[in-house]
């Protein structure tokens, strides 16, 4: 029986682990992929304190993981596929069996939202990507589009200009949701051309992507844009499949109080998965630390 099981080893999960190990809890971190979560797909991070110059997402993930390992945290590469509480004990079903624990922190983050247009699924990995860091270098000297209007879309569009000759930024509105500094930086990049008020209706190609069909929602005109790749950054869906429905809000995020406590005693949610999250690394880390401290206080009170 564990004191704590942390589900997910993104920045939130690894911060929870740092606090859990230092408070002496017997715990394990479950991760179905690679430690780092979404930051593994982030090109440069420049808003996480402690780094004078921008740090590559994978490098930040590696440092967090190394810190956890040095402190003695135990990672288990497995997927949590079920979670229930019976007689005061959590049973976490994983692809490798059931783990019992007194407390659980769900730090399962979020996944890329899809455009849900014809051609998207068909050409994923053949011109459609959700990760500029992973795939940007394949488009050296080519023409690509970045889709979206938030920080991630703009930052990744800027990153893509390191490789691509031309980057179209396709945004369905005429205003961006990103931070002022990011908008200014994107607008001053001569390789980026903004296509406002437009949505992609279809992604076309044969072996690989060759064009996208675009609809301008204001003028209702349709056009076809020739390109080699489409990078989609239009938001995220919470990874909530294992969470009890009664703790989820209308957006599928886990409702928590200021201690990251859900309505189920001993079950905490932190980072992007929790309600009201600002969906940034710093906040995910703070949430993870808060959740681990709360779990420790709860265990101490038993
Ligand atoms: C392209 C992009 C650029 C970004 N740029 C920045 C930036 O510059 N600055 C910034 O502050 N933020 C940035 N963000 C946001 C930031 O990455 C997230 O807010 C942060 O990673 C959230 O951390 P998390 O730990 O809550 O979740 P995640 O990072 O999503 O990690 C969740 C982890 O849980 C694992 N997991 C999920 N379900 C299960 C399961 N059932 N069993 C086992 N494991 C599971 C996943 O595999 C994943 O590793 C960016 C995000 C993207 C996509």
What does the model show?
The protein has 302 residues and is α/β, with parallel strands linked by helices. The chain has 2 domains: 176 residues, FAD/NAD(P)-binding domain; 119 residues, FAD/NAD(P)-binding domain (3-Layer(bba) Sandwich). The chain has 7 helices and 19 strands. The strands form 5 sheets. Strands 1, 2, 5, 6, 7, 8 and 19 form a 7-stranded mixed β-sheet that branches. A 5-stranded parallel β-sheet has the order 10-17-11-12-13. Helix 1 packs parallel to helix 2, helix 1 packs parallel to helix 7 and helix 5 runs parallel beside helix 6. The longest helix is centred in the last third of the chain and has 21 residues. The radius of gyration is 21 Å and the shape is elongated. The model has no long low-confidence stretch (mean pLDDT 96). Bound molecules: flavin-adenine dinucleotide. The site of flavin-adenine dinucleotide has 37 residues, from helix 1, strand 2, helix 5 and helix 7.
Write out key terms for the chains shown.
19 strands; elongated; 2 domains; 7-stranded mixed β-sheet; single chain; binds flavin-adenine dinucleotide; FAD/NAD(P)-binding domain
Rg, Cα atoms, Å: 21 Å
User: Strand-residue fraction?
Assistant: 25-35%
Q: What is the CATH class designation of the largest domain?
A: Alpha Beta
Number of E-type strands: 19
Category by helix and strand content? alpha/beta
Quickly count the helices: 7
Domains (count): 2
CATH superfamily of the largest domain: FAD/NAD(P)-binding domain
What would you say the CATH architecture of the largest domain is? 3-Layer(bba) Sandwich
Please tell me the overall pLDDT.
96
Structural shape: elongated
What's the helix-strand series? EHEEEHEEEEEHEHEHEHEEEEEEEH
Distance between the termini: 15 Å
Bound molecules: flavin-adenine dinucleotide
